[in-house]
């Protein structure tokens, strides 16, 4: 029977062993970014896992692919794929949790993750942007970070940096659940005025200073999944809505693959 595990690369932790982000969901695991063999070691003990999705932010993309390459070399029977998304760690964790809430085939689980993240808005409330590289702040925002009395900033992944006072007007008030890191200030707890809200323990999303340069509180407004069962891969028989199988790289839908 196929079993999917989702590995989330933690940019704030270079060493150590992989471990569940939440003990209630053992299939979602945080892996340190500085040890390329740690995923392979974890798979040696996880005999039931047949498929792995490695989730990573763009700056950790190369390390995520190295983790996957080493693991695939030592465990050729396990299908491993990498997905890089410009999103907060909270968004990556929450999307994986949401995708695996109900049992599903590995290909369907990966589809759910991709669809959720593609329609998710995420970012972080930061006190200063002096050490922030992504998204890139303006020169004026750098100056306001140095001067006293500032109210902080919101860094939107895949977007821009705005003043914290613009949070309520800039953030979309959609239907997706808002997910916050523990200790969120009032500005974030009022996000969107949504009925359903989830708070992740701060320990599950690593050290925000390693990502943003200063203490930060991440958030995400989760996107939605589409009711698309996809097609069966002619090689590995996993179902996926993608034109190319994410696990074995075989072409599933030739009509949607551009000619070379």
In short, what is this structure?
The protein has 260 residues and is of the alpha/beta class.
Topology, element by element:
Blueprint: E1 4-10, E2 19-22, E3 25-32, H1 38-45, E4 51-56, H2 61-74, E5 79-84, H3 89-99, H4 106-118, E6 121-126, H5 139-146, E7 153-156, E8 161-163, H6 167-170, E9 178-181, H7 186-189, E10 197-200, H8 208-212, E11 216-221, E12 231-232, E13 239-240
Parallel strand pairs: 1-3, 1-4, 4-5, 9-10
Antiparallel strand pairs: 2-3, 6-7, 6-11, 7-8, 9-11, 12-13
- Note poorly predicted spans: 191-196
Number of helices: 8
Please tell me the total number of domains. 2
Helix content: 25-40%
Tell how many strands the DSSP assignment holds: 13
Write down the Rg. 19 Å
The CATH class of the largest domain is identified as: Alpha Beta
Q: Can you walk through the features of this model?
A:
The protein has 260 residues and is an alpha/beta fold. The protein folds into two domains: 4-119, Rossmann fold (3-Layer(aba) Sandwich); 121-221, 2-Layer Sandwich (Hypothetical Protein Tm841, Chain: A,domain 3), CATH 3.30.1180. It is 26% helix and 24% strand. The strands form three sheets. A six-stranded mixed β-sheet has the order 8-7-6-11-9-10. A five-stranded mixed β-sheet has the order 2-3-1-4-5, with helices on both faces. Strands 12-13 form a two-stranded antiparallel ribbon. Helix 1 (38-45) crosses helix 2 (61-74). The chain is globular, with a radius of gyration of 19 Å.
List descriptors.
single chain, 260 residues, alpha/beta, Rossmann fold, Hypothetical Protein Tm841, Chain: A,domain 3, 2 domains, six-stranded mixed beta sheet, five-stranded mixed beta sheet, 8 helices, 26% helix, 24% strand
């Amino acid at each position: 029977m196929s079993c999917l595990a989702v590995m989330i690369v933690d940019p704030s932790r270079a060493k150590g062993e992989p471990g569940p982000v939440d003990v209630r969901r053992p299939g979602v695991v945080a892996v340190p970014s500085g040890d390329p063999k740690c995923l392979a070691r974890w798979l040696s003990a996880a005999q039931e896992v047949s498929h792995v999705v490695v989730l990573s932010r763009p700056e950790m993309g190369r390390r995520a692919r190295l983790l996957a390459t080493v693991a695939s070399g030592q465990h050729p029977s396990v299908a491993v794929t990498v997905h890089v998304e410009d999103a907060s760690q909270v968004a990556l964790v929450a999307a994986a949790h949401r995708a695996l809430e109900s049992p599903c085939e590995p290909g369907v689980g990966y589809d759910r993750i991709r669809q959720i993240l593609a329609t998710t808005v995420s970012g972080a409330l930061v006190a200063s942007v002096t050490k922030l590289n992504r998204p890139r702040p303006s020169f004026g925002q750098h100056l306001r970070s140095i001067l006293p009395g500032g109210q902080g900033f919101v860094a939107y992944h895949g977007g821009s940096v705005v003043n914290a006072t613009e949070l309520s007007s800039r953030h979309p008030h959609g239907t997706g659940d808002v997910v916050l890191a523990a200790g969120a200030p009032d500005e974030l707890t009022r996000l969107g005025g949504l009925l359903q809200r989830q708070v992740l323990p701060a320990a599950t999303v690593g050290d925000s200073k390693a990502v943003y340069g200063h203490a930060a509180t991440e958030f995400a407004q989760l996107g939605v999944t589409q009711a698309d069962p996809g097609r069966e891969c002619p090689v590995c028989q996993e179902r996926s809505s993608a034109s190319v199988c994410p696990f074995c790289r075989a072409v599933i839908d030739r009509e949607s693959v551009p000619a070379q």
